[in-house]
Amino acid sequence: SKNSLHQKEEFRPLANKIIRAGTRISSDLGYSPEFRLVIGQMWTIVNPPGSANRAHIHPNCLWSGVYYVQTPENSGDIEFIDPRTQNLAHQPAFQSGQKRLAATVPVAQITPSAGQMLIFPNWLYHSVAPNLSTDVEEKANRIVIAFNLIQVRKPKQVE
Questions:
Q1: Which H or E run includes 14?
Q2: Contact at 8 Å (CB) between 42 and 3?
Q3: Among 22, 99, 128, 149, who pairs with 53 as Cys (CB 3.0-4.6 Å)?
């Protein structure tokens, strides 16, 4: 689709949820109150059976995200890859049988579900495994709405 879905009325409820999440991110990370996160681009991706998305990042934004509209069984996990090549090349030994902290895992996979939204830093490499759904016709498609968040200066208050 075009990358301006956030400007369409039918996507306003989702766009509002994304903006609320961006506001929480800004607050939690201590971003300047003179700025706010807004949707720079928002588009749909339909992945029929057999399709996948290669590892990539999203330049020219601060945060990227995806909202899952339809996720048939076996339609492909999203995978996040630590961009620090040294961390991928040489991993420390960890205690066996112990849960590792998320920050120590070089690759993380998430099996998405419809209605789920993920937001992640724009520099985090991510890919999507092939859609292996055995559903029929449109029910086999993985459908997502992807978006990027950018920081813009808030308008000056007129006194």
A1: helix 12-29
A2: yes
A3: 128
End-to-end CA gap in the chain: 42
How far is Cα 124 from Cα 117, in angstroms, rounded to an integer? 16
* CA–CA gap between residue 34 and residue 107 (Å, rounded): 35
At 29 the pLDDT is 96
Give the closest residue to 39 by CA, choosing from 62, 55, 57.
62
pLDDT, tens digit, for every residue of 92-101?
888 899 888 8
Q: Where are the beta strands (DSSP E) in 71-132?
A: 78-81, 107-110, 117-121, 125-128
pLDDT of residue 156: 83
Between CA 133 and CA 139 the distance in angstroms is: 9
d(CA 9, CA 27): 27
Query: Model pTM?
Result: 0.89
